[in-house]
Automatic annotation (TrEMBL):
Coiled-coil residue windows: 109-136
SMART domains given in the database record: TIR
Keywords on record: Coiled coil
One Pfam family this sequence matches: TIR
Superkingdom of source: Eukaryota
Domain TIR: 1-123
GO biological process terms on file: defense response; signal transduction
InterPro entries from the UniProt entry: Disease_R_plants (IPR044974), TIR_dom (IPR000157), Toll_tir_struct_dom_sf (IPR035897)
The organism of origin for this protein: Cannabis sativa (Hemp)
Name of protein: TIR domain-containing protein
Gene3D superfamilies tied to this protein: Toll/interleukin-1 receptor homology (TIR) domain
Amino acid sequence: MDDKLKKGNEISPTLKKAIKTAKLSVIVFSENYASSSWCLDELDKKKQIVVPIFYGVDPSDIRKQKGSYTITSKRFEGRKRKDLDKWRKALNKAASLSGWDSLSIRPESKFIEEIVKDVKKKLKVLEEEEAAIMATASVIASTTYVGASAC
């Protein structure tokens, strides 16, 4: 989190870059999530692992885009139809993922503990995969070097 970011100020380029290069995103769908065009734009860009959290909202309302998740041109005046369609598709895709529903796990402390365990597990898997890729790259580089010096 950008501790220097004051409410109402623009998000710093450093934070934007961190969001863009993250390998895992925890997205908290709340009652007001879909009122933010910035959040909707970011949701559409997610290419990494997504851990959806449905906080006080029904995932099916997001998939069906009901209530506060209704994306209309009247609500987002001035936005292109292409943007609205992109947001609808991204919301549907994210809400279709297996996620955490605050309405089904109580107390809230248990809900948070379960999310933390899940995210740690996913990050560990990513770390192990990255280590395996680096080890493979090192072997390939060594083999190439040995092969080149043997000529």
